[in-house]
Fold these 4 entries.
Entry 1:
Amino acid sequence: MRRPLVILACFLLVLPLSLLLFGCSPVKSTANPNLIWKVDLLKFDVKDKLESVEVVQQYVGTTEQVHQQYPPDGKVFLIMDLTITKHGTDPVSFDWSKLTIQDAAGNTYQRSGNDTFLELYKYLPRISGLELKLGKAEGWLCYEILAQAANGKLTLIYSGDGSQQEIIVKK
């Protein structure tokens, strides 16, 4: 009679302990193992202008220089912080022309041709547009999208070889 009670007591102690240990383990996101390049969106900003103040050292002291950057008329900046990671050993390079933004109306936008200005506005590090062949790249990049499109759904799409992905930026 005593032995079954001891076994039951041990079971009742071990069960909650095992649930606690396994239930608290961090959940790891599992990437599609078939992707050659995986794109992750960390955060984004929509701006109708960028502004910063730079303190410039001069012989007679310091001065403040205001920098402003505006998108073309009718557009806004969509600035995104991304991580792009290569999986496997396939020799396919990351194709920047295949990384687009699509708005709710179906319009697509390419990455800005020259977004080096992001560094001046403290969006660091910036991902350069240079070819990616392996490893991992992290940083900011910029798109210029229609202002009315920024109010609706936005989707980041990568349609490179072996890496088709759609990431909801804004619902």
Entry 2:
Amino acid sequence: MHVPTPSIAMTDAERVLNLLIHDLRTPLGVAHGYLRLIREQRLTTGEDRERALASTQQALGKISRLCEDASAFLADPDGIARGRASVSLLVDRVTAQLRERGVATASSDLAGSETLIVGAGVDRLADAVSTVLQAMTRSAASGVRIETEGGELRFLTTAAPTAGFDPWRGHGLAVPLACRLIAGVGGRAGSNGAGALAIVFPVEMAPE
């Protein structure tokens, strides 16, 4: 009789290690393959050799970025600063980054006096929010609506309801790292309960 193997819940550190091992294989294979061609002098033209060196350098750069992301993910989350910034500043930075990434946005009127925790800096948080939203909209083929309501800042995808969003599947380490940074300042990323994908932050009025 076949006895099913019980599933074992992985810690985030184990997920990072699993993803790192998986994602390192392709660029390592690319770099190794091109270096072997160069060493064996199988590339007969200078143009081919230059192309091989450029591809090798690209692969090594990807390996470096993967290692940096893994290191950042495993850093102490309690070390995140608790600075604050205006909601409008974060929205402006996110909107600009999404525009560069080809993601359309629409915003309702945002109160200029609302603030939120941005951690180590508004630019870093904006990059994390943009990274996650780009991953969400790529899978949902949608844009992003931005609003504040009920003490929350919400970045909502505008597609029809979806089955959900898993940052650990198909996104490498950049998206889980961005989700971790968002959670570190009190935000959350995923389904909003109505099926839409969202990133939500608590906000409060600035003191008079």
Entry 3:
Amino acid sequence: MSGKTSTKSKRQYNQKAYKTHLYTYRRNSDLGECIQEFKTRKGTSLNYLITSLLANHFSVAIPTPETDIDK
């Protein structure tokens, strides 16, 4: 496999390391329009934005791969 990580092994790691949550918002709302506009920009991902805001709300460090507790 020449040192490349397979898609299957990445998927298995991600399932063990991360939890996914589904959220909904009204499409025709100001929030919905802001989210759609944000997603068209390059740079910070919506996932990172949500994670950093939640970490700030709960007064905990923003989790990063470098602080992965499974290592």
Entry 4:
Amino acid sequence: MCQSCQQSAPTSEPWYTDVLLIENAPGSFSDEIITYSVFKLLDAIFKACRLELILPDKLPEPDALQQFIEEQCRKYGR
């Protein structure tokens, strides 16, 4: 692992660390990777909970996303 990448990892534990160096990414890349990551995480959580929820077509703004998640927790939580 490169020295600068190693310093940005939250821990040195290998199970927690997954460093990916991306060079020459277009300006839109950060928005694309955030959208992809959020949707994949929510999809994995909903599948683990055995919920077949339809995610929004577009990533909501943070406050709306928080509201969406809280609504699902109220609806399906115990």
